[in-house]
Amino acid sequence: MLGSTHGTLTTHSRPARVVACGEHAGTTVRGTSDPREDMDVSGRPLHARVPDLDRFFRPASMVVVGASDSEGRPNTGITRRLIDWSERVGARLHPVNPGRSTVFGLPCLPSVADLPEPADLAVLLVADPLPLVEELAEAKVKFAVAFASGFAETGGEGAIAQARLAAAVQRSGLRLLGPNTNLNAFEEFRDDLEGPAIALITQSGHQGRPVFALQELGIRLSHWAPTGNEADLETADFISYFASQPEVGAIAAYVEGLKDGREFLLAADRAARNKVPVVAVKVGRTETGARTAASHTGKLTGADEVVDAAMRQFGVIRVNGLDELQDTSALLARARPPRADGVAVYSISGGTGAHFADLAAAAGLHLPELSTEKQTELHQWIPDYLSVSNPVDSGGHPVGDWRGRKIIDAILADPAVGVLVCPITGPFPPMSDKLAQDLVDAAEATDKQVCVVWGSPVGTEDAYRRILLGSSRVATFRTFANCITAVRAYLGHHRFVSGYRSPFDEAPRTPSPSARKARDLLRPGEQLSEHAAKQLLRAYGIRVPREQLVTSAAAAVRAAGLVGYPVVMKASAARLAHKTELGLVRVGLTSASQVRDTYRELTDIARYEGIKLDGVLVCQMIERGVEMVVGITHDSLFGPTVTAGLGGVLVEVLRDAAVRVPPFGEDQAREMLRELRGHALLEGVRGGPPADVDALVEVVLRVQRMALELGDGLTELDINPLVVLDRGQGAVALDALAVCR
What we know:
The protein is of the alpha/beta class. Strands 22, 23, 24, 25, 26 and 27 form a 6-stranded antiparallel beta sheet that branches. Helix 3 links the parallel strand 5 (about 120-125) and strand 6.
């Protein structure tokens, strides 16, 4: 463990860490295949492949290529730091430089081939690491770190150079950190701190400094992985590894881009199985952020709404700022699981308590009203004219004597309370010192979480520096917002992992009969006609209206009689979208003459627009229901994604949709619908009956199956509108668009 370089690992009580299929002692080696490893129906792995990074963080021997002790050279300072680090972790260090016989008194070798023993780790202080890869592999070096820049982050030739480097590493069996990384993995971590630790992952080293500085506040850090451009080892590898380490209480990550969306989700899944929280700042919410991040590490940021949904789907807690990353990961690392989801607010000022409670409730935290019995108990020590229902206002005076501790203990004893928050907006010794000490003492005596917001901008007060920061059981914040963000994440994480079922365990392994039928309907490189797209839906058991494709007016009249009036008529052709705008849809036709005339009108318009029809659809008319949209798109990072939202002609205007990355289960499909702003429409409005949500969920899951089984063969699917009928009556796909690769 890098964060305990002077001593032994400190463990804490957590469930046994999961070992995935194909792993031995929690590790796998890239380049080998295990026949037991599960693959989904599209041939993608269903479990994270966890690299054995023990010898990266604690090597027995290491080599520094390009080592120097010449004054004024950049490599000299780096070499000195690496020698110091090797001594802390107990590694034998071998300098390599053909121009030196010794470096800082150590024998210096002319090449890696001259190493007296296999090295676990090589640090490459060279401009071009590529020529060294084969030499390192032949010397049986396990890991290498490349600091050199000028690769994918520069685009063009740099990206090509990185691709060559990555290919060489892949062939060699060596594992590489970088290029474009730094010395953060070799920091000196405090070994005098106890309890669960934060493991840190950053793609920009400087952005990890605030989290690293938490050690000065008594919060333990165990590892720091600066991943750089991720030509080989990536963020996902370190999440998987850290989630398996017993000393890690939380993983904090600063992510600019992802190398492989699937691997990231598999790593997040491993962390969720092991109940290890992952807190991440992910850059790329705006075009400017995405563009800047890409120029820094050369990786894709992905569509932000998809990244956001994917993180939420697998329990990754996304925060916006480095201060939130600090505070949230610190709370999650050290806090015990909550006994209840209720938050009680206690203050010495009614205004302070009301302000915090207002913000907390707006953020979705549950502030239960304390029972009548509990309020009566509190009024033994608090004047009757002050409110104690939650928030609890002591009025200040009881804090200064024995009553202060009684009040805190009584609130914590309430079974509905899982977290006690005490905002202290400013110091007022000795009262604030007494309050802080009572909170610390109460926290030590309870298994519930106590949080304090110390609002003073000074931060040198004894109550803050010595009493509050000296406690491992009290989580101390400097702002209301960060406290609320962290407490919401804390309660949300434990709620999520308590009922977590890995969607990868339920992912289909073999193609369904529907897949075989559907593949025969795909036309590579084409956008299917509505009629052909609906055939795809039928293959997967998704209901469409009664309809017939006709090629004459007489056939249209016969079809209308069979379908049943009133009918809808629509032109059908490949590569035909937005039929309504072109006047190629007619609804509510009630007679044979209308059908005959409409057929002629539709074919005339198509001829004028130069559209080659495969016919005209005569369809059953569905007159009432909630119009939804369900579809498939492909994301550059995560592959196929499934979207569900409010549909109809206003879909682009409303933009009310939720997205998930397959695989996912029924619970996530239902959660998608609850995320919609217009979810109330499905529950029935203005006395109307509720919609058949079960049928809608079933359509979402069947569309997900299409996404998994048809893979890249189906690049886009748009069912709009999908009309959800009254409860028990199902859902009908009135229109569909499908694009094949």
